[in-house]
Design goal:
Blueprint: H1 14-27, E1 32-38, E2 48-54, H2 57-66, H3 68-82, H4 87-90, E3 93-99, H5 100-106, H6 111-115
Parallel strand pairs: 2-3
Antiparallel strand pairs: 1-2
Helix pairs in contact: 1-3
């Protein structure tokens, strides 16, 4: 019999929070194109890397400079907390910001190539 481990805790939350976050962004006229993740496959690693992709480089830079990106990050963490994401895991969430335009231009349109 195989000794199978449960998937990392982070996987229980990322789909739900992504849907909520994209809906919130649309309602608030924030051009958030996509959200992607890197989750470690080690049970003791509580980290979660969140990649926020705006539609264009101009939008990304504008939102970085006017504080919108910080608002987006805080909202993301708030939604995780509301979904009962473990408190000790919240401190391990990190964010990376990019644009769909950059993915198309430099990574053959593939988030996979960007995240490697």
């Amino acid at each position: 019999m195989k000794n199978e481990q449960a998937p990392p805790v982070q996987f229980q939350f990322i789909d739900s929070v992504k849907k909520l976050m994209l809906n919130w962004a649309q309602e608030n006229d924030i051009k958030l194109h996509d959200i992607d993740y890197v989750v470690p496959f080690v049970q003791t690693d509580k980290s979660l890397a969140v990649w926020l992709f705006y539609d264009t480089d101009n939008t990304m830079n504008f939102f970085k400079n006017n504080g919108t990106t910080e608002t987006v990050k805080l909202k993301y963490l708030q939604l995780l907390a509301e979904l009962n994401y473990p408190a000790d895991y919240l401190n391990e969430v990190s964010f990376f910001i990019d644009s769909n335009e950059n993915i198309k231009t430099h990574f053959r349109g593939s988030n996979f190539y960007r995240l490697r």
